[in-house]
Amino acid sequence: MNVVLGVGGGIAAYKAAELTRALMREGFTVSTVMTSAACEFITPLTFAALSGRKVITDLFGNRSADEILSSSVEHIEVAQQNQILVVAPATADLIGKFANGLADDFLSTLYLAFQGPVVIAPAMNTNMWQHPAVVENLAVLAGRGHRIVGPDAGALACGTVGPGRLVDPEQIVSAVVAASIGKTDLSGETLVVTAGPTQEPIDPVRYITNRSSGKMGYAIAEAAAARGARVVLISGPVQLKPPAGVELVAVRTAYQMRDAVMEHLPEATIIVKSAAVADYHIASVPDKKIKKTAARMSIDLDPTPDILAEVGSKKGDRLLIGFAAETNDMVPEARRKMQTKRADMIVGNFVNAAGTGFDSDVNEVTLVMSTGDTVPLERATKKELAHKILDHALRLRLALHNAV
Ligand code: PMT
Predict the structure, then answer these.
(1) What's the pLDDT score for residue 393?
(2) Vertex 137, ends 134 and 143: CA angle to 5°?
(3) What is the whole-number distance in angstroms between the Cα of residue 187 and the centre of ligand 1?
(4) Residues of the chain with CATH 3.40.50.1950
């Protein structure tokens, strides 16, 4: 799929180079259009070298009137050749031009000619971001259905601290992925997704955890948001940035995860429990570090709450999807967990198979459903599997509904 990246003239323009690479890693072909102000911050050569494609910097180029007249109309051609327009950084000036239909350079002209989905990633000084003119202009763009990503808050290049920083490239990529899917079969749904490991403290400096990276759960959250759902992502400690448009609730322990899930349960229509929750914890954690001695030591562990089982007992007509991380007997174990915890579907995965499971970008799963069906899915990336799991979940809900 072809993406045209519009780069505005702000200090964050250099981050658009990183965004180009991130989009290409995701499989997009990237063409770049730069405003003249953007060229003051970073050279067109950078984007040409990264994307391997010509970079457009102005409306008329260095062409004679004859050359312009004999060639096709370039901004129309670019608008037709690309499926998604992403503007990063989107400055106050660009946002104002887009909102008011002004077209005095290539990018603003392209915007008017472009008919596909538009992703806007604003970046500017905090006072500019909060100015009523920018707020109103942005509301106009949001009202046109454009996806607005960010900005983040933090220390800005101008010295102020506050909202205005360009979001992480990965978040812009997830907004572009969402725009590319064009599927809105989850709009109106609220998904509560759990992801990552939990950490159970032993003392103030030590804890028990597991190898979950959060990739599987984050992929599901990203896929659901891309398909129009509101997503509450309840995550243990991981190294991942939350996907664009997802509401992150960061937790550490199994008890905190349980409380967060229960708090959001009333809003949920679908619950996906992909977190690797610790099964045991230390009930009374000392407030001082345990000293090393020569003696052998043991730790008493108590069971943590089984969140999936508790949700299963209170789920009402919500769809409940659990996971099962197994090293053997995967399908029977997944079926047993589904029945005892009253889940509608369990996604079983072998976690000792090479190259899949924990911390890998790839997984191989079998779906065990309450209808009695068992569906093995081919090995694929977690991002691809996330969509397939959601496809099957929607079909399962329909089947359960029709069976009533
Ligand atoms: O995070 P990644 O690196 O991408 O790895 C993905 C994964 C392997 C962690 C994921 O695919 C997975 O299998 N997640 C579930 C891991 C797990 O804890 O499985 P389990 O069989 O121990 O638990 C069964 C189910 O009960 C799970 O839905 C789990 O979230 C839930 N559970 C478990 C214990 C507990 N106290 N409360 C729970 O809700």
Answers:
(1) 97
(2) 135
(3) 26
(4) 2-181
Contact 225, 212 (CB under 8 A): no
Q: What is the pLDDT of residue 106?
A: 93
Q: Integer distance in angstroms from the first to the last C-alpha of the chain?
A: 42
Q: In CATH, what number does 2-181 get?
A: 3.40.50.1950
Tell which atom from ligand 1 comes closest to the C-alpha of 196: 1
**pLDDT (tens digit per residue) in 211-236:** 999 999 999 999 999 898 999 999 99
The whole-angstrom distance between residue 297's C-alpha and the CA centroid of its chain comes to 43
For residue 271, what are the CA distances in angstroms to 220, 261, 349? 11, 9, 18
Rounded to whole angstroms, how far apart are CA atoms 364 and 347? 10
What's this model's pTM, rounded to 2 decimal places? 0.82
Range(s) of the chain covered by CATH 3.40.50.10300: 190-285+300-403
Name the fold adopted by 190-285+300-403: Rossmann fold (3.40.50)
Q: Which of 76, 158, 161, 283 is catalytic?
A: 158
Query: Do 251 and 236 touch, CB atoms closer than 8 A?
Result: yes
314 CA from centroid of ligand 1 (Å): 19
* CA 217 – ligand 1 centroid, Å: 10
Residues with CB under 6 A from ligand 1: 196, 212-216, 254, 273-277, 279, 304, 306-308, 322-325, 337, 349, 351, 357-359
Among 201, 235, 180, 168, which Cα is nearest to 4's?
Answer: 180
Q: Where on the phi/psi map is residue 396: left (φ > 0), alpha (ψ -120 to 50), or beta? A: alpha
Q: Which residues of the chain have pLDDT under 70?
A: 59-73
